[in-house]
């Protein structure tokens, strides 16, 4: 079994902040962990967190933001 590392630098052009990466990957990993969900990429990993990060790297997972999110957070 070949090991490989996913570094935060790999996401520099994919996502605007490390915090957002953690949130997006965490939510997607929760979805992947369910038995009725399938990965969006071909992967050798069985770990939902690694699969989610690979999906973000390949551009298969997206996110949206809005001004309302920021306002809700401030209040």
Radius of gyration: 14 Å
Corresponding CATH superfamily: RNA polymerase subunit, RPB6/omega
Number of strands: 0
Q: What proportion of the residues is helical, as a percent range?
A: 40-55%
List unreliable stretches of 5+ residues: none
What structural class should be given to the helix and strand makeup? mainly alpha
* CATH level-two architecture: Alpha-Beta Complex
Largest sheet, in brief, is: none
CA-based shape: globular
Instruction: Figure out the total of helices.
Output: 3
Q: How many structural domains does the protein architecture include?
A: 1
CATH-derived topology: Eukaryotic RPB6 RNA polymerase subunit
Q: CATH class, please?
A: Alpha Beta
N- to C-terminal distance: 49 Å
Give, in order, the helices and strands.
HHH
The average pLDDT is 85
**Beta-strand content:** under 5%
Give an overview in words.
It is a single chain. The protein is mainly alpha-helical and 75 residues long. It has a single domain (8-74), classed as RNA polymerase subunit, RPB6/omega (Eukaryotic RPB6 RNA polymerase subunit), CATH 3.90.940. The chain has helices spanning 18-33, 48-57, 67-74. It is globular. The model has no long low-confidence stretch (mean pLDDT 85).
What is this entry, summarized?
45% of the residues lie in helices and 0% in strands. With 75 residues, it is mainly alpha-helical. The mean pLDDT is 85.
């Amino acid at each position: 079994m070949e090991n490989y590392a996913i570094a935060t630098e790999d996401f520099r052009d994919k996502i605007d902040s490390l915090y957002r990466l953690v949130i997006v990957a965490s939510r997607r990993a929760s979805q992947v962990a369910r038995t009725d969900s399938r990965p969006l990429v071909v992967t050798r990993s069985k770990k939902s967190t690694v699969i989610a990060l690979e999906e973000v790297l390949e551009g298969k997972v997206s996110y949206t933001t809005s001004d309302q999110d920021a306002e809700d957070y401030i209040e």
